[in-house]
Amino acid sequence: MKKTSLVFLLILAALASCASKESAENTQVEAINFTYEIDTVHIAAKDEFLFLNMGLYMSDYDPKTDLLYNLNPETSRMEVINMHKGELQELIQYDQDGPNAVKEMFTSGIKITESGEKWFTDYRSIIHLNAADEKIGEFRVNNESFSGDTLPDKMNIGGMGKITRSGQNFVSHYGDYLRDGDGLQGLAVLDLKMRTKRLIPLDVFHSLDKYELSSPDGERAGARAGERSFISLTDEEVIHSNSAQNRLLTINLSSGEQREVKLTSDLLPDEKPGLYPKKANSVAQFEEFYELKKQEVTFGPWIYDGEREYYWRISREKNGGSVANPEFAFVITVLDKNLNQLAETKLVDGDALPFDGLPSLSFCRKGNLYMFLNIDDELAFVRLKPTISYE
Known about the structure:
Blueprint: E1 2-13, H1 20-25, E2 27-42, E3 59-62, E4 67-72, E5 77-82, E6 87-93, E7 109-112, E8 118-121, E9 125-129, E10 135-140, E11 147-148, E12 156-157, E13 162-163, E14 169-176, E15 183-191, E16 196-201, H2 204-207, E17 213-215, E18 223-225, E19 229-233, E20 237-242, E21 247-252, E22 258-262, H3 283-295, E23 298-299, E24 303-305, E25 310-321, E26 326-335, E27 341-346, E28 362-365, E29 368-375, E30 378-390
Parallel strand pairs: 11-16
Antiparallel strand pairs: 1-2, 2-30, 3-4, 4-5, 5-6, 7-8, 8-9, 9-10, 12-14, 13-14, 14-15, 15-16, 17-18, 19-20, 20-21, 21-22, 23-25, 24-25, 25-26, 26-27, 28-29, 29-30
């Protein structure tokens, strides 16, 4: 176990008016102590082969029961992990055919609600089970199933969206998903209880086009590598961010009010430079340029800690080594519930995270940040245990 201690200064300004004199008088400085410890948590699989092929993307941690639910989308088998004991608790086999099927085309995610109900998101539908695992509903994510704003022709709502812990709302991107289509256009918010739909156009997607790497010729014709857009949810709001820019947008789920927050980092660039070539003419060249792209700054999604009402993010950037054998710096950023930046720290060299990129799944448990780690096809987590105190 390794431990690092750093002190950060947070300037809290209370402005009574726009006058500089009054502003200075109402400015106070408070020191923040930020410390962390890192270790690895291993999960006992009890002679079962757990589904790790998709990086636990089809999983959901339920803080109420302290259970992690991991679904194999190919077989619809659910693995229930007891996080307190660090072991597999049970296996649940769901139907793939018939009236109780939880799969239509391809399962894209699950959500365990506060009441114990389960939602299975699919390619173009949402399947609802009650707390007794009885199927009680299935909805297509289209104009016919949800009233309200109308999806334009050729536009669809993506099945890779997320559901709030309350089970009230499903949030996903909408747009033209065809290869030569118009791309993503905004966010769709589906009220699962009222069966209504809101479409929220966003301008951010066009600003990400300049980072796209493509291969128009050769064996891998049409290959593309763009930036990722992230959706993080609480029961009250959506946090929308992307992997190339140090900014975020919040949307209040009740009022629809939007707020843009531009963050500033002292440890990383606030935007990906995009200095790598954007056009490749062969498979080998595409892979070469893609490695260069991955070595520029990459911001991860925001991870909500409901216990302390913090938002955590992991980012990384090449800071040493060579192009062929790069060394990366990992940076942890934390915001408070009002999205004020409390602290950021670069992990010391000995604490470098063992990921080829950023962790595929992260969640907060009892104030700690858990990051999925595959160790020789066995389930484990890198656990970051942060402490924030004020002086």
